Amino acid sequence: MGKPLVGEVVVLPFPQTNLQSGKRRPALVVADLPGDDLVLCQVTRTERSDGYAIRLVLADFARGRLAVDSFIRSNRLFTVEQSVILYAAGKITEAKLQDVKARIRQLFV
Length: 109
What we know:
With 109 residues, this protein is mainly beta. It has one helix at 94-106, and strands at residues 8-13, 24-32, 37-44, 53-56, 61-64, 70-81, 87-92.
């Protein structure tokens, strides 16, 4: 698999808080850094009322999909090396990506 593109929903093993290997979870690629690193947003099935969660449904995908409707947690950013990504589940629409980026910018205002 090549380096995922910004806007792709990827699946990777999330570590538990004790740094032990965890379950496979989806995340959204929001930035492509030089080298092998990417910035991702957490994607979860659990709805949050923190003002940063963005609903993700089948219609938000330009290609691919997730098995269930989910939420992009734009306030949960992290950096990973592309080698830990298992596969890409799909790519969201440009409109949904712009919504996510706008919410991320709100973190820094």
